[in-house]
Amino acid sequence: MNLLASYWGQERVYHHTAPISMNYALHEALRLVLAEGLENRWRRHQENHFLLREGLKKMELGLAAQEGHQLWQLNAVSVPAGVDEARVRQRLLNDFNIEIGAGLGPLKGQIWRVGLMGETSSAAKVQAFLSALAACLASKS
Question: What is the pTM (predicted TM-score) of this model?
Answer without folding.
Answer: 0.81
